[in-house]
Design brief:
This protein is α/β, with parallel strands linked by helices. It folds into three domains: about 210 residues, Spore Coat Polysaccharide Biosynthesis Protein SpsA, Chain A (Alpha-Beta Complex), CATH 3.90.550; about 140 residues, Hexapeptide repeat proteins (UDP N-Acetylglucosamine Acyltransferase, domain 1); about 190 residues, no CATH class. It contains 16 helices and 34 strands. It has a seven-stranded mixed beta sheet. A seven-stranded mixed beta sheet has the order 12-13-16-19-22-25-28, with helices on one face. Helix 9 packs antiparallel against helix 11. The radius of gyration is 26 Å and the shape is flat.
């Protein structure tokens, strides 16, 4: 049997620890995460492994693992320049897989708990095209997933939910599947396809068997920063075998080669200290804790239940408690770091690693020009002030234009001047978004008939030459004037002048990571998508622009986008 590891794609819940560090190379007990997955597959007797990566990550991962020979396996790499989803990217492995059943594994899953023999017997016994592994949770907590099984454990329905639609079931997807190669014939080249919410329903609709393998085993995953932190805690408490090149210090304490631990330092296990580290007098390390290679804990420094990546420094009197400190980062003398993350000189706002905490707040730099720095509390207040001023002034100054547009709409076709539709705002809260009506009154009734002719890839519905658009509406859309009533949405606080475009929840369901990230801030009238090609952009470009904006939005960037939007609108580019 062969296996494919899905190690590409965006996962906003792992921000900021994946900024500059690919998911497969995330250090786990001072070793790359992918190394643990490869070792598990090799124990199963699987030595031919495909790894799906993004073009950005492939050179780094390939430099670390090569062809896999050093790890006793053969690795076949594939990159996805245009994200096609967990199922869509499998097409690149069709020749590699051939005509045999193959294992598909999420890039954030540890496989130690998997009984592959039992899993395969379940798959073959039910003659399934896909068998998905599930585990039972005690309560409806954790991953926001809803899955429905038939009486024979066939998968009836599958949905990744947003917190505002919390209808979780007790079954949780593991992120491990067995596939038959006939699946390749159902995948469309270049299209975005999700396994859970697109491929599985498509198979069921065509009458093929999709089965569920439900196990009581507990699978460890790193789906978020909190998961990543807790995974270290759990593995250390379970007890670890001697890492390569490490020597026991006694009482579940391990140190790497050329590491110096002062006799006056206090080290309470379980603790793993990498190679070439220095632990000075009166420094304290209280486990479960992991120190990467080349770390320095200066005199009086404290590391309590934290993860330090290679080259991290805890300066004299500094404290890192229940935290993650990235490679080359340091905690200043006498400074405390509590339930936080410092990676690439970025630190999240607020407490993110407390045991009961879910989710990761946005990150901001420690220093830099305040106007161009990613948003902090003051920046958010300034952004809101700009929104109120801009929206109120716009409504007053543009009121004559509003009247002229209203007259044109009424003279052109029957129906109201305004159109409103329920959209998702910040944190998934729904609101009624306003627009000037540009379509015939019963336009929404005909959308399903036009779905096959849509001109934008991905789940979003758009038709450039939409027959439902009126003559006046076509002119309004060319100049984006139909969006002007949203100034009212901005004024009342549902939207911002700049932000990701508000969508309906259904249009975001196939990309839950992208969805949850873009819903962490207010939607906007304009944004990076509008000035970067708008309707001529692919769904992939849209995702990248949204992700980049949410991670790095600032007052200065908003002002730049507002200025460029004016030129885009009156240059008649992208409207339809």
């Amino acid at each position: 049997m062969k296996a494919v590891l899905l190690a590409g794609g965006e996962n906003s819940l792992l921000d900021p620890i994946t900024v500059g560090c690919p998911k497969p190379l995330l250090p786990l007990l001072n070793r790359p995460f992918l190394e643990f997955q490869i070792e598990s597959l090799r124990r199963f007797g699987i030595v031919d492994i495909g790894v799906a990566l993004s073009p950005r990550d492939r050179p780094l991962v390939e430099a670390r693992f090569g062809d896999g020979r050093r790890h006793g396996v053969s690795i076949h790499y594939s990159e996805d320049p245009v994200p096609r989803g967990p199922a869509g990217c499998l097409l690149e492995f069709a020749d590699f897989i051939g005509n045999e059943t193959f294992l598909v594994v999420g890039g954030n899953v540890l496989l130690d708990s998997l009984d592959l023999g039992e899993f395969e017997a379940c798959h073959r016994g039910n003659r399934a095209v896909i068998t998905a592994a599930f585990t039972r949770r005690r309560r409806t907590q954790g991953d926001l997933e809803r899955v429905t099984f038939s009486e024979t454990s066939g998968i009836e329905d599958y949905e990744v939910l947003h917190p505002i639609r919390d209808r979780r079931t007790l079954s949780r997807s593991v992120g491990v599947y067995l596939f038959e190669p006939e699946v390749f014939g159902l995948l469309e080249a270049g299209s975005f396809t999700d396994i859970k919410e697109q491929l599985i329903p498509q198979l069921r609709k065509s009458g093929r068997t999709v089965h569920a393998y439900v196990t009581s085993a507990s699978f460890e995953r790193a789906s978020s920063t909190s998961d990543y932190y807790r995974l270290h805690q759990d593995l250390m408490r379970q007890g670890i075998s001697a890492p390569p090149g490490s020597a026991p210090l006694g009482d579940n304490r391990w140190i790497g080669q050329n590491t110096t631990v002062s006799s006056k330092a206090y080290v309470l296990g379980p603790v793993l200290i990498g190679a070439n580290c220095t632990i000075e007098p009166h420094a304290q390390i209280i486990g479960p804790a992991v120190n990467g290679d080349g770390c320095v804990i200066e005199e009086g420094g404290l590391v309590r239940e934290s993860v330090l990546w290679s080259g991290a420094t805890i300066a004299r009197g500094g404290r890192a408690e229940y935290s993650v400190v990235g490679s080359g980062c340091s905690v200043s003398p006498g400074s405390p770091l509590h339930e936080s993350i410092v990676v690439n000189e970025r630190t999240p706002v607020g407490q993110v690693l407390a045991p009961a905490t879910a989710g990761t707040p946005m990150a901001r730099p420690r220093s830099g020009p305040w106007l161009s720095a990613p948003m902090n509390a003051f920046g958010a207040l300034l952004k809101r002030a700009i929104d109120i001023f801009g929206a109120s002034q716009g409504l007053v100054l543009l009121s004559p234009l509003f009247v002229a547009i209203a007259v044109a709409i009424k003279l052109d076709s029957a129906g109201p001047v305004f159109f409103s539709q329920q959209r998702c705002g910040e944190r998934g809260r729904t609101f009624r978004m306003l627009k000037f009506r540009t379509m015939v009154v019963d336009a929404e009734k005909h959308q399903s008939q036009l779905a096959v002719n849509k001109d934008v890839d991905g789940p979003v519905f758009k038709v450039f030459k939409d027959p439902r658009v009126t003559r006046a509406g076509r002119s309004l859309r060319k100049l984006s004037l139909d969006e002007l009533p949203q100034l009212w949405n901005v004024l009342v606080g549902d939207m911002s002048l700049v932000g990701p475009r508000p969508l309906v929840m259904e249009e975001m369901r196939y990309s839950p990571s992208w969805r949850d990230l873009r819903l962490s801030i207010k939607p906007g009238i304009t944004g990076p998508w509008q000035i970067g090609g708008r309707n001529h952009s692919s769904f992939h470009d849209w995702i990248l622009k949204d992700v980049s904006y949410v991670r790095n939005h600032s007052v200065w960037r908003d002002l730049a986008i507002l200025t460029k939007t004016i030129f885009w609108a009156f240059g008649r580019i992208g409207g339809y």
